[in-house]
Description:
With 108 residues, this protein is mainly beta. The protein contains no helices and five strands.
Amino acid sequence: xxxxxxxxxxxxxxxxxxxxxxxxxxxxxxxxxxxxxxxxxxxxxxxxxxxxxxxxxxxxxxxxxxxxxxxxxxxxxxxxxxxxxxxxxxxxxxxxxxxxxxxxxxxx
Length: 108
């Protein structure tokens, strides 16, 4: 049987949940809060599938780009002359982007 090539495009989006809810382990006397928050997730690319001799089996080759976003929210309460002292909050935004190459096998 002749091998057939089929092109495809894929895309996934969603929300990235942080692995643990604890941020930086740095010890600081003025730090009052330290929280990791999730963010946008996406994965998109192109590829092609090759039908094998068995019509149900295919090998898929694809390449794309993936990105995950995370925010680390840290709050500090510094000494002040007149209490209550206000908390200063810093938001650190992190993006993990990567180029993805995939080889997979499928039955359908």
